[in-house]
Amino acid sequence: MTNNKLKSMKKSLVLIALLFSVTATFAQENVFGVRAGLNVTNLDFSPEVPAGVENLHRNGFVIGFVAEYGISKKLSIAPEVQFSAEGAKDKSLRLDYIQMPIFLNYKLTRQIAVGVGPQISIKSHSHEDGLQNFAYSGIAGITYMITDEIFVDARFSYGLSNIFDDATGLDAINKNIQFGLGIKL
User: Fold this and answer.
1) Rounded distance between C-alpha atoms, residue 61 and residue 86, angstroms
2) pTM of the model
3) Between β-strands 31-45 and 172-184, what pairing exists: parallel, antiparallel or unpaired?
4) Could you tell me the end-to-end alpha-carbon distance of the chain, in angstroms, rounded to an integer?
5) How far apart are CA 41 and CA 63, in angstroms?
6) In this structure, are strands 112-123 and 94-107 parallel, antiparallel, or unpaired?
7) DSSP assignment, residue 131?
8) Secondary structure percentages of the chain, helix, strand, coil, to 5
9) Which of 101, 97, 98, 104 is nearest to 80 (CA)?
């Protein structure tokens, strides 16, 4: 083996050991679960809705997997993977995404937590339709634990990127209010 390969293997082993030690440190704080809910979503056109476009809100659904990794008794990181039906009611403006929100949660009380973070979305339907395949949003929410396992939440996400391809000459962002119910396993 060459000297460079040995150095690379040592770095990889140190990194793996570090990841395992961090995971073991927070192991008692790790929680996984599922979540489903309702979306009330719309597009925010700039400067105005183009002629001939009916920009009515869309009611959709969200379903996915949640995780929560404790940093301290009050602070946690909560990545998720979910399917979310968003956009507007008009069929050409419907956006279905596979999303990854990442919350930084803060527990106000034993039952109530608030969170903020970024969200990355990948369009899950046609990729040659004048709409961006990736979208970026900011997201905020509040969670109420009904029991130690069952929770309800409300969230608001606001798009940070244009949903249309540059060639269309249109500019709009996605806005979404979400109401969810979940269970931590």
Assistant:
1) 8
2) 0.79
3) antiparallel
4) 45
5) 15
6) antiparallel
7) B
8) 20, 55, 25
9) 101
C-beta neighbour count of 150 within 10 angstroms? 13
| Residue pair 116/140 in contact by the 8 Å Cβ criterion | yes
Domains of the chain: 29-184 (2.40.160.20)
Residue 60, token pair as written in the block: 């959709």
Q: Per-residue confidence at 104, pLDDT binned at 50, 70, 90?
A: very high
What amino acid is encoded at 4 in this protein? N
**Position 16, amino acid:** I
Q: What is the pLDDT of residues 151-164, one digit of tens each?
A: 999 999 999 999 98
User: In whole angstroms, what is the distance from residue 139 CA to residue 117 CA?
Assistant: 5
Structure tokens at 54: 């009916």
For residues 43, 49, 52, 55, the Cα torsion angle rounded to the nearest 10 degrees is 30
Residues 113 and 50: their CA atoms lie apart, in Å, by: 40
Rounded CA gap, 69 and 181, in Å?
19
Provide the token pair at 55. 């920009």
Which residue has tokens 């995971």? 23
